[in-house]
Amino acid sequence: MDTLDRRNARAPRVTAAMVAARAGVSTATVSLVANGKTQGRVSDDNISRVRTAIAELGYVVDSIGSSLARGVSSIVILVTPDVSNPFFANVISGVRESLGPEYQLLLSVTDAGESPQADDVRKLLALRPAGLLVGAPSAQFLEDLSAAGPLVLLDAPGLESYAPSVNLDVAQGARELARHLAASGHTHAAYVDGVTGTATFQLRREAFLEEASRCGLSVADGHVISTSIDVGAAAAAFADAWPDWQRAGVTAVVCGTDTHAYGVLQEARVAGVRIPDELAVAGFDDLPYSATSNPSLTTVHLPATPLGRKAGEQLKGLMEGLALDEPHVTLESTLVVRGSTA
Amino acid sequence: MDTLDRRNARAPRVTAAMVAARAGVSTATVSLVANGKTQGRVSDDNISRVRTAIAELGYVVDSIGSSLARGVSSIVILVTPDVSNPFFANVISGVRESLGPEYQLLLSVTDAGESPQADDVRKLLALRPAGLLVGAPSAQFLEDLSAAGPLVLLDAPGLESYAPSVNLDVAQGARELARHLAASGHTHAAYVDGVTGTATFQLRREAFLEEASRCGLSVADGHVISTSIDVGAAAAAFADAWPDWQRAGVTAVVCGTDTHAYGVLQEARVAGVRIPDELAVAGFDDLPYSATSNPSLTTVHLPATPLGRKAGEQLKGLMEGLALDEPHVTLESTLVVRGSTA
DNA sequence: CTGAAAGCGCTTACAG
DNA sequence: CTGAAAGCGCTTACAG
Question: Keyword annotations for this protein (chains A, B) (predicted)?
Fold first, then answer.
């Protein structure tokens, strides 16, 4: 048996019964001590006796047994349609931060762009999560999820009736962006949208289009296209559309995400389109690279980490049985002007 | 009771006993059918009877109960020091892809740059994971993890004796990079490293430095600095070091990750350092934005998705009790030359 | 303050 | 092919 084999053999499990035997108490007492529920229920003597045994044996409460007995696990499930979006990495960090070490974060990811189905939900609930965090869900998904326990929605505008939520005020940034472009002298713009029918994309687009028309920046019907959230896909779509747009006098392109904008920047370089002189480009998200792209990208900053942090906080409250002071929170977005439109 | 309240009430759980009662069989039979272990053990009649009851009630095997009985859960834990690194988003996608729907991916994240401790390990194991995927671990961590069940290491060069692993041949790309810079006429370079003592960073640096000295590209001792994996931190460190480097005739900077390189590019723009004319910049990773940065970034391409995919495959084999044909796999890295060094 | 016991939901020898 | 029963490890009324 070589090292590899040995490592794949399981270690013998230390159980509460073993601790109890060593400390000379019952497993009930061990449970009380291990969970810190000793207040007025366990003698000081037994407490220290059990603590010693726990330390000596390296006992850790088995979360499977514990979850079964309690009826709920310590797992928090984060359901998101798109982990590969770097925006989400920061959301995850924020969630972790506020959830703390007592909850385990389980990531449920569907295939790129797909939204999770009722069937997926059932499987998730079979894990008896302590709580659920759902990003950018569809109404249908939330119907399927009914009565699932503590639940907080992230970035789910318009779905406030289903659960407490933390949203981003993307419309505000979108309007700022429209005004910025109009003020810079643009009169004809185009829009590159995400394909997923996510509500936030719709909101971004509609707020932008509305404010644009209000300030004399026109966006023709045929000048709104959509692609998956992928640099290459956006580049290809832009390559396809640009000749038309150019003929029609388009001098500004707004993208639903920075990732789309990177694709446009990339293709523009290939096609020799000068940015921002010939074409202004802007996005949404303010990913960490937008400050360094070529040129640096004007974008609507969305607070990813605070979004995750706040959602985690709210969920924690729910899991602890508290009533939320403010069940619906909206975080601000702000326009960051950089080289791509300057 | 308004909608929100109702949603936070748990749905009544459908158990195997309820299915058994409805189908007129024992829970043992329900278990066999639900797990597809009917082969020669359950009559066709009972199979269809149970299937009908399962469908009618919407029964899903409770994974807590199941895990306790089996002694192992369906959870696979991915331990990684840094989710916020976009490189990892792709690794995760790859893992998900190869693991398939029967395993749940649990993310264990330590605070930025911190490596997980023995104590964290115990908590993880309390979840009775079906398997563990550990990225860029320390030897100490692997010692703590001993005998933890199926385990596959990702990006853990030099630690092959602990477990099956999937590594990246970063040295090859590092050497290509050194030769590319030397061939472009550079004679003095600097290096911006990551601060975490991760083995892959050491490998990148050493392979580069070795090959550099071999081809007449000198890197002075004081010209190797290190920062956390963060655009801002790298920018600040570069700002600090550049005057010195410039005086010493440095004309090329190699960064341990693309993220570091973005910081250098950013600061270079601020400081008016012309790239690549005055200073060539290169990184490692080939993040999706490196093709669009300003200028586009020369970098050593590391296959993130295949890394995750392969590790997931290997782990799946282990969890199914198979012997791996090839316990140690190394994926190639390749230099991608772009504008920042051209 | 303490422990015996029931129960969480499932799986798996075992006897038939 | 089938079901009664033991057991996975824990928590929590309950009786004392």
Answer: DNA-binding, Transcription, Transcription regulation
